Amino acid sequence: MSDDTSMNETPTIETHTEAKSTDDRSPASEADADVAGMDDQSIGEETVIEARDLSVFYGDERALQPVNVEIPDRQVTAIIGPSGCGKSTFLRSINRMNDMIDVARVDGELLFRDTNVYGEAVDPVALRRAIGMVFQKPNPFPKSIYDNVAYGLRIQGKDDDLDEQVESALRRAALWDEVSDRLGESALDMSGGQQQRLCIARAIAPDPEVILMDEPASALDPVATSQIEDLIEELARDYTVVIVTHNMQQAARISDKTMVFLTGGELVEFGDTSRIFENPDNQRVEDYITGKFG
Amino acid sequence: MSDAEVVSESDPFAGTSDLDRKRTIGRIFVGLCAASALVGIVALVVLIADVLYQSWGWVTWEFLTYPPSQFAESYLPGGRGAGIYPALVGSIFLIALTALFTIVLGVGAAVYLEEYASEGRLTAFIEANIANLAGVPSIVYGLLGLAIFVRAMQLGSSLLAGALTLTLLILPIVIVASQEAIRAVPDSQRHAAYGVGATDWEVIRDVVLPSALPGIMTGTILSLSRAIGETAPLIMVGAATSMFVPPDSPLGPFAAMPMQIFDWATMPDATFQHVAAAGIVVLLTVLLAMNATAVYIRHRFETEL
Amino acid sequence: MARKEYQKRLDELREDVLYMGEVVQERMRMGLTALESKDETLADEVITRDAEINELYLALERECTDLIALQQPVAGDLRFIAASFKIITDLERVGDLATNLGKYTKQAERDVYPDVDVQGIGAFALEMVEDAMEAYAAEDTDACYEIDERDDELDAMCERASGFVVRDLIETELTEDTTDAEIERLLADVSRLLLTIRDLERVGDHAVNVAARTLYMVENDDALIY
């Protein structure tokens, strides 16, 4: 890192490519051993996000043990684990939302399309335009439905054909039919489930590549939850979705891949959701998903 | 009464006889609290009633539109016509200028402290000082204004010097109130904006300030209504007790209502007690109007969307 | 409609089970034809292609486990998956019995008892399987009871056929000229025929199982499950 700082931009990129080609070998051989037989579908999957020894510290406390993982394109990757296991910390490190915590510090690399998002040249604002986020509690702005969806488009300067883009986002969020005749009304007058779908519409309106979701249904009733889950499955056709959930059944229902974090911020297992839920490698993971350990 | 016996034998609430005593203590406590509340209300009602009684018939259109006079007869209905006009205009200008400075400086400082400054010793030190400054007596600000604005900056005993002094006086309160309003904006709102790729400035402009505005505005207006009644700092910066014309420029001399009222109250002629009371009624009306505006703004912003 | 993906998977499971049913019936038909026409090529095909049915079975079993592990099915959905899980086992067994028919074809050199209507029994059993799968598809409980009744008929048919064969064997007169080899062959033919009859009777039992699971699935009624 100190080398990078002293260099100008061009050599930085070279350093990255070098680092990539050398790094590629060792994790690949490791991954072969780990992944062989467990991820039969992994062939032909494109990796969008890759963590390489990514750790997060809050002050002196390590919130995340070094994480190595490859998150595939256009699939739902669920992150599960008990409270305080670092699952949200990992999610927030992807779009650098941890930057907002003064004491948070990140070690290692997080590659988004092969670029280290913690590299010198990466602007977190630009990163968040490519990686949208939906939060635990629906947080629409106290504005109209229309303005909520249009917000990201406006600040990103994508405001040509705003009406069409807003409609398209609301349709993709399965909300258009419910709100098309009251776009001017306050978003705060909607039900919780509608608000959360509005937040999803707001996140997907500027067409990011990845959508991060931090327990998006935990504040909703079962019907609204079910709608959100359907929506997430739909979204995975066009976007890479990474979702943190404390609800294991939800992860089982909607995800293609599952990451299991356990106490201490350790990524214990990652793989196809069906394999994790039917035949996990790790005994602690089995104890966790069968509810024998909490 | 065999029924009663049966009941008492199997009384599920046995051993609760202490409740009566406790309930009595509770009633006494409520009584004391109510009495305390009454003291304040009664005092205020008596004060207002007295002022209204004293000023009855003295607050006329002439009183609002004429300059003051040395002669009590001039203030009488049907007299030559005299009143509070220069001080009323002076106070309104003074407050308008103060409001301008306070909002710019107060909101700026609050935004910096809440949104930009990192949590550190320096920030904590600044915040502690601001909190302490809010408790400093107003006469001290008067001295400060005299030293800095009137003398060092050579503004003289002008409207501007007065406004700047009052700004210093209420700035700590406005900063603290604005900080609280900004802090009350839920983080989830900020995250929502950051999440779609907003910059710090965009988050503050689009999310923080709109949400915090009602709180900032009420805090500011309530502080201003304190400033409008201040006399001591104005005496120190050398405001005129009594002027016959309203101020014509920010750098010109001015009179303000509290000092005018003080002037009347010290007049030997007893008739001037009624004039002073009339002045108080005007001052209180302006003050209540400002507070009502604050309430209205808060209500308006909270119900809108 | 909530849980669209899940509903889609349930619908697909139903279709896949029905498809497996069709494959198995086709295989039975082939086995019976091979037996009748002594077509060894066809018999070979029946035997080798049993692997397809086994693969289908494993894939569907896997899908059922996935659905249970990942989708937390309850109530009607759970009964549907549980019933399907059992039904594919029965279908796989019917597939094995079809393979047996292929094996018997290859072993048989001549018809010993043309009077025994193996084809008739086979057709009867096959029709039971077909109707059971239709009942499963249509969730037709009346058909389920009806299939159960028909099994008694099939059992009677098989018993009559076995009785005929055994009685005939007893009545067969062995002369001095009968060689040991001839006796051996006679015994082999008889036992093969008895096995064929038993296998066809089993096919009917599996059809009843399918009907029983269907009844359980539709009405949570375990009347036909023994």
Write up what this structure looks like.
The complex is a heterotrimer of chains A (294), B (305) and C (226). By secondary structure, chain A is α/β, with parallel strands linked by helices. Helix content of chain A is 41%, strand content 23%. Chain A has helices spanning 2-6, 9-35, 87-94, 124-130, 145-155, 162-172, 176-179, 192-204, 222-235, 248-254, 273-278, 283-289, and strands at residues 47-58, 61-72, 76-80, 104-112, 115-116, 131-134, 210-214, 240-244, 257-262, 266-272. Chain A has a six-stranded mixed β-sheet, with helices on both faces. In chain A, strands 2-1-4-5 form a four-stranded antiparallel β-sheet, with helices on one face. In chain A, strand 4 and strand 5 (115-116) form a beta hairpin. Chain B has two domains: 17-55; 85-303, MetI-like fold (Orthogonal Bundle), CATH 1.10.3720.10. Chain B has helices at 2-9, 18-55, 61-65, 72-75, 85-116, 121-133, 138-152, 159-183, 187-195, 200-227, 232-237, 257-265, 271-303. The radius of gyration of chain B is 27 Å and the shape is globular. Chain C is an all-alpha fold and 226 residues long. Chain C is built from seven helices and no strands. In chain C, helix 1 packs antiparallel against helix 2 (40-48) and helix 5 (118-138) packs antiparallel against helix 6. Chains in contact: A-B, A-C. Chains A and B meet through helix 4, strand 6, helix 5 and helix 8 of A and helix 9 and helix 10 of B.
Question: Can you give keywords for this protein?
Answer:
heterotrimer; B: 305 residues; mainly alpha; MetI-like fold; 2 domains; 13 helices; C: 226 residues; Methane Monooxygenase Hydroxylase, Chain G, domain 1; elongated
Which structural category do the helix and sheet elements of chain C fall into? mainly alpha
CATH topology of chain C: Methane Monooxygenase Hydroxylase, Chain G, domain 1
Form type of chain C: elongated
Mean pLDDT of chain B: 86
The CATH superfamily of the largest domain in chain B bears the name: MetI-like
Any idea what the shape of chain B is?
globular
* SSE ordering of chain B: HHHHHHHHHHHHH
Total strands of chain C? 0
What is the domain tally of chain B?
2
